[in-house]
Amino acid sequence: MVTAAHRDNLFRGLVDRAAAAEVSQERMRHLLDAVLSVASDLSLPDVLRRIVTAGCELAGARYGALGVLGQDGHLVEFTHTGMTGRTEAEIGTLPVGKGVLGLVIKHPEPLRVADLAQHPDAAGFPANHPPMTSFLGVPIRVRGEVFGNLYLTEKVDGLAFTQEDEDVVVALAAAAGMAVENARHFDRSHRRERWLQATTEVTAVLRTSLCESAGMDLLAERARETAGAVLAFVAVPAGPEHLRMSAVDGVLADELTGECVSTLDSITGDVYVTGRARVLTEVAKATLTRSPSTFQQLPDGISELGPAVFVPLSAGARPCGVLMIARDHGGARFDDDDLRMVTDYATHAALAIDFADAQQDRQRLALYEERDRIARDLHDLVIQRLFAIGLGLQGLKRAPATPDAPERLTGFVAEIDQTIREIRRSIFSLQQPTGGPYSLRGEVLRAISEATVTLGFEPTVRLEGPLDSVVPADVALDLMATLREALSNVVRHAGAGSVALTVSVDRHARRLRLLVQDDGGGLPEDIAHRGGLANMVQRARRWDGDCVIDSPGVGGTRVDWDVPLARHAESQEGRG
């Protein structure tokens, strides 16, 4: 943003330079207008275009260009005006900073040339390049360092550029340096904000995702989008000497997904082993891998990639993978600011992955402790109960004709049914995964365990069918959200003393059903068809299912959530 103090400094400096150079009053007015136009924009590409246009207008040049220099002193960006799109396409490759252009780079001082062809450093023009005779080059400095050079050619009156032309362009370059600095600060802040947003989104998903591959896919996708790149991939360990591209986003995604690279003789492997980031000016020159045994031939599209950065996914002593981002051929190189932002992004992602791994370890430990508890309960409760039932049946055998025999027998059957339910529930608890695929059974039991604290009693649970093998993760997410909403409503509105819950898949594995029945006083009328209850219905309809909520006010509330599984399976097959 151009502040009043900033504008005053610009004008004060211009007036001093213009007075010293004896610039005419009319050109002084044009110069001030040009500087105000340049300084009024905060977009760096727009600022560069405005500088080139203003330089051409002030010096009367037909063609103008601004070459931005990289840290190695080579041109990394070239903004120009005056040529038609057709001419530009016929020329092809942009200048690289040789000849007279290179002279201004080596010696950053104003340079005027009456006839380029006669200059000893002239390198000539490429084919289809328009003829250019006169030349004026002026460096643009930002905080004392050369940011780039403003090149003007072919004065419209056919004459050579004058000392006054040079003076007014030098004054413009001084003001342009301050405008560039302002735009760079804004651009840097904007990029940092975008990377922070991407980091927040990705780390949240990586820490809570049910599927690790979904988190990795998002990690690559957001990296590519935020960096303005055409390709990004995440490579993870696949054995002691190989990395596998587990998530690829952008061009070549189909060709690269699942490919392996060697940790011994590839750039990706070098970053993984050393833990040090690598910045390349062009992927095609370095290639992604040099391992003939794992990647016989790079896809043709690799040669069309440009600048790239490889950073380790590292939050500790050893990286857990490598993130690579590549821009298009001819795209902007990754500078130090880019590298810092990408590295921070990768580090936070690695921390989130470590956190998720640690959480799985804690869950594993909790599962082992739960197994010990279940074993104790089986010994202390179930076995004792079965022993008591056995004694009772033996007593009934000795006196089968007593009047209360049928009632006692019915009681024993009920005790056996309850014992079977407890054993089944124990078995389901033991079937929770140990860090592998998502378990719907485990999630349901975990939700019930959490709800028991707020309900004040333990709901009755029935789990039927192959829940863990046929229910897709995204459908399971909607079922769990519905279950938690239903239990939350029981706590807040029903005043129930018991809840019966059933989650089932039919024997043909075609439908998934959730039934929640409580014995409370029903739901208030004002919430019966809005908020969370409406979301239950919406989640069912998303999968072509339905959700019926029956709350007559007497006999409690019944939630019947039912969705087909066939539709989802068919869509998955269609994508495969």
Automatic annotation (TrEMBL):
<dbReference type="Pfam" id="PF02518">
    <property type="entry name" value="HATPase_c"/>
</dbReference>
<keyword id="KW-0902">Two-component regulatory system</keyword>
<feature type="domain" description="Histidine kinase/HSP90-like ATPase">
    <location>
        <begin position="474"/>
        <end position="567"/>
    </location>
</feature>
<keyword id="KW-0808">Transferase</keyword>
<protein>
    <submittedName>
        <fullName>GAF domain-containing protein</fullName>
    </submittedName>
</protein>
<feature type="domain" description="GAF">
    <location>
        <begin position="43"/>
        <end position="190"/>
    </location>
</feature>
<dbReference type="GO" id="GO:0016020">
    <property type="term" value="C:membrane"/>
</dbReference>
<feature type="domain" description="GAF">
    <location>
        <begin position="211"/>
        <end position="363"/>
    </location>
</feature>
<dbReference type="Pfam" id="PF07730">
    <property type="entry name" value="HisKA_3"/>
</dbReference>
<dbReference type="GO" id="GO:0000155">
    <property type="term" value="F:phosphorelay sensor kinase activity"/>
</dbReference>
<dbReference type="InterPro" id="IPR011712">
    <property type="entry name" value="Sig_transdc_His_kin_sub3_dim/P"/>
</dbReference>
<dbReference type="GO" id="GO:0046983">
    <property type="term" value="F:protein dimerization activity"/>
</dbReference>
<dbReference type="Pfam" id="PF13492">
    <property type="entry name" value="GAF_3"/>
</dbReference>
<dbReference type="InterPro" id="IPR003594">
    <property type="entry name" value="HATPase_dom"/>
</dbReference>
<dbReference type="Pfam" id="PF13185">
    <property type="entry name" value="GAF_2"/>
</dbReference>
<keyword id="KW-0418">Kinase</keyword>
<dbReference type="InterPro" id="IPR029016">
    <property type="entry name" value="GAF-like_dom_sf"/>
</dbReference>
<dbReference type="InterPro" id="IPR003018">
    <property type="entry name" value="GAF"/>
</dbReference>
<dbReference type="InterPro" id="IPR036890">
    <property type="entry name" value="HATPase_C_sf"/>
</dbReference>
<dbReference type="InterPro" id="IPR050482">
    <property type="entry name" value="Sensor_HK_TwoCompSys"/>
</dbReference>
